[in-house]
Design a protein that fits this description.
mainly alpha, transmembrane helix, cell membrane, transmembrane
Length: 268
């Protein structure tokens, strides 16, 4: 990896961290399409472009998830009993999701990713939140919900907030607490996802140097380092910038990047 490549990964991490701080979402929506494009430029195996992008994005989310968890815990915004109950399902669902993703070829993965990001973008534009209409379910049901959230998160390399926050809000959890609890859930998602992709890519031939399974570590370190500094800046700017307008612009960006990724993968 030369200096230009390193600069690209650092820039991607910085931008991802900034948006994560602004909107409180994971970076998979940005990282996966851009990593796919960068990996093509680095002449990585075409059949594993999306797998490597998902895996590298998941691994890069781990340090961000730790920092976010700590910040929300200090504000007493995490319902830890819920985290403990949902975590087994999260770990299982995310880990299993990486096996499904590794089985699928790049094209169906890209199609699913693009469709899901279109859903996320529409959710951001409409800004509709589910009305609280029930209480939190029991332990078994929470594990089941966690499995579903984890499975989807593994396929699109997100921290789960897009699914976890609406579910908790629907269950009469106040929005700030739902966001904090979702941040805590994001750590087992990122860890289990990164581990699963590392295992599934372990015996794959022709992967580039400096990989562990499907994870390309130079990109992970560069992106995680840059996002560590820009995420707090994004959180600070969130209190002074027109967030509703920025969310709509960000939604357009998500759709554009997802379509670009889809056309790139299908074109190859």
């Amino acid at each position: 990896m030369n200096f230009v490549d390193l600069l690209c990964f650092l820039s991607l991490g910085a931008i991802t961290g900034l948006f994560a701080g602004l909107f409180g979402i994971g970076g998979g929506g940005i990282m996966v399409p851009v990593l796919t494009f960068l990996f093509i430029k680095l002449a990585f195996p075409v059949e594993h472009l999306v797998h490597m992008a998902l895996a590298t994005s998941m691994a890069a989310i781990v340090p961000t998830a730790i920092a976010s968890l700590r910040a929300h815990h200090k504000r007493r915004a995490v319902i830890w009993p819920v985290v403990y109950k949902v975590a087994p399902g999260i770990l299982f669902g995310t880990f299993a999701g990486t096996f499904l993703a590794s089985y699928l070829s790049a094209t169906p993965l890209a199609i699913f990713f693009s469709c899901f990001m279109a859903f996320v973008a529409l959710q951001m534009v409409l800004d509709q939140k589910p009305k609280p209409s029930r209480q939190l379910p029991g332990s078994v049901a929470l594990m089941g919900v966690g499995s579903g959230i984890g499975g989807v998160s593994a396929l699109v390399a997100i921290g789960g907030g897009t699914l976890t926050v609406p579910f908790l809000t629907w269950c009469n959890v106040a929005l700030p607490i739902a966001i904090g609890t979702s941040a805590a859930v994001g750590l087992p998602i990122a860890f289990s996802g990164a581990l699963g992709y590392a295992i599934n890519g372990w015996s794959v031939a022709n992967l580039p140097a400096h990989t562990l399974g499907f994870i390309y570590w130079p990109a992970v370190f560069a992106m995680a380092t840059a996002s560590f500094f820009t995420a707090p800046l994004g959180a600070k700017l969130a209190h002074s910038l027109p967030i509703p307008l920025l969310k709509k612009c960000f939604a357009v960006l998500l759709i554009s990047l997802s379509l670009q990724m889809l056309f790139t993968v299908v074109g190859h």
